[in-house]
Amino acid sequence: MDETRPIFVQIAEGIENDILAGVLAEETQVPSTNEFATYYRINPATAGKGVNLLVDAGILYKKRGIGMFVAEGARNRLTEARRETFQSEFVRPLVAEAAKLGISSSQLTDMIRKEGAS
């Protein structure tokens, strides 16, 4: 766990990562808040807070008496949200810095291709 960020956020991101990686497919059950609490040695309420973030976002849903499940379309929603975040947090600053340094779009593209090849 990363000590600089709230645990419940890290739990939510971990579930998101498992969905994106295909570890948790749509309509499959996710571990319970008690399982998360035991695994991470945290309070079940903290684990629940992380799970509820994803319920609120429509990524997970509850089957009464059974548990939490990955919602249909969750992977696509997560992919789109992460792409938007990637663009705003990485691409825009990268393009802005390149412009400050006089790096053209084609030069920047070439740099990215070289990095991707290595």
UniProtKB/TrEMBL annotation:
User: Can you tell me which residues the record assigns to a coiled coil?
Assistant: none
* InterPro entries per record: Tscrpt_reg_HTH_GntR, WH-like_DNA-bd_sf, WH_DNA-bd_sf
Which positions fall inside the HTH gntR-type domain?
5-73
Single GO MF annotation: DNA binding
Pfam name, any one: GntR
The record ties this protein, via CDD domains, to:
WHTH_GntR
What's the superkingdom here?
A: Bacteria
Protein name per Swiss-Prot or TrEMBL: GntR family transcriptional regulator
Q: Which organism is it from?
A: Conyzicola nivalis
Taxonomic lineage: Bacteria, Bacillati, Actinomycetota, Actinomycetes, Micrococcales
